[in-house]
Amino acid sequence: MNCVKMEQLISIDYHIINVFAMNQCWENNHVFDTVFHTGRPTSALLYVEDCTAEYILDNNKRFFVKKGEIVYIPQGAKYKTVFHHTIKGKTSSMLIEFTTTDLSGMPFVFCSHIMKLSDVQGINKTLFIEIISLYLSPVQSLAMIKSILYKFLSELSDARRLKNINSKEFSQIAKGILYLENNISFDKSIAEIAAMCHVSTSCFRRLFKKYSGLPPVQYQIGVKVDYAKKLLLSNTMTVSEISERLGFQDLPYFCKFFKKHTGTTAKEYLALSKK
Fold first, then answer.
1. How high is the pLDDT of residue 139?
2. pTM for the full model?
């Protein structure tokens, strides 16, 4: 199964299919068991409402989920869940099942293991309630349900991205990461960005590559190329205006840059995209 980290989800295009949502009322100490030879058929988000949950993984490792915590369960996961401290007649947990796929239809998960999301700030049960209410409505709007789920996953993704940036590992270059992610013109050099973070250039390069998977210069190139393509396809700006928006000193340099990194001129790229 392909894996896309949750913090990267906000920056990619993908599909959500096989949506299902429900409130769950469990008896105390009830055991939910996946089919061990196949695992879970879809991914899921579970909000623990009025109980606690004990997850027993296929390697016999265990972890506990408290009231008010959210769990992500990837497609294919093999586990048992024991629900403790349930209250008769009250909702024990809220479940949203779904499958995420890339644009070619290949499914992917956010990680290969069950993951607690309770450490993500600003995420609560409101969207669970809204999605379940819409799903159970007599007149069901799947488009509305998916739009809320996309929003929910985007919020989770952005919250985890910011948490990762401000983690102990990357906190010293957090300003530089945010600068590179939010400034498309990149008017500062890598040395200047490193100085802004009070670290050496080599330290910044090393940590940024560990964070993003790319050296900062390659990251800048990728962002500029992707943004240029998006602006070209929007058909709202001239090539000269796009060049200026991206911080290039002159149009010929932008054209040379675009062809070097895409293999086509801007005009050729537009023509190919219309075929």
1. 87
2. 0.79
